[in-house]
Amino acid sequence: MTRASRIDQVERARLAWGEAMPAEIAVLAEACRARTSRAVARQLGYSDATISYVLANKYQAGDQDKVFAKIRGALMGETVMCPILDEIGRDRCLSEQAKPFAATNSTRARLFHACKSCPNRQQKDVA
What we know:
Layout: H1 9-17, H2 23-34, H3 37-44, H4 48-55, H5 64-74, E1 79-82, E2 86-89, H6 90-98, H7 106-117
Antiparallel strand pairs: 1-2
Helix pairs in contact: 1-2, 2-3, 3-4, 5-6
């Protein structure tokens, strides 16, 4: 499939979201237009299918707020203050929250404990 014959992600998002299209969706669609949705999905830590559903305003299966936070961190430059790592991207913050405890890595162990009570915490399934 050639670049010209591919569906324009920006137009697809605009049709699906209408006037209420959030800034995160516009940035995501532009990133997919500039590269590929697969490359953007890999950068965000999601599948190509998830990115497609988000752009089509049909993402019902997961946490849309988390996807938006990853977009803000990875594509829009949003940062947070981490008590262990200092200033980091919001996307990295979410990734660190999801990682398991590792006694063999002192930074990972400190992050695991700090993430539990951090005001930036969004992961609900982190013990």
